[in-house]
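U., I forgot to send this yesterday:
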Amino acid sequence: MALTEDHVREELKKVIDPELFVNIVDLGLIYKVEFEANEDDGSKQNVMIDMTMTSPMCPAGPQLIANSKQVVSVLDEVAEVEVKIVMTPPWTPDCMTEDARDQLGIF
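Result:
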């Protein structure tokens, strides 16, 4: 099966923000997912993820990065995972899905 952005995002939904108890995809923290062929194993892909935090000094940042790498790297089609933290554009509650807003009681 070919690796897709949707597949990676579904896996990233397993990563839960420890302060808000909502997954990072529904929180709107995942900005970009890209792929490139792995030079050592042409049957696998390297995955590059641009991710943001709810605030620049988010104490959960290292944990969210590590958990993101962990859940994506177990996919058979993945060779390497790189998570890059970006702060542009800045995260706002508007980035959240409706499900996340419902979970947090934001209307």
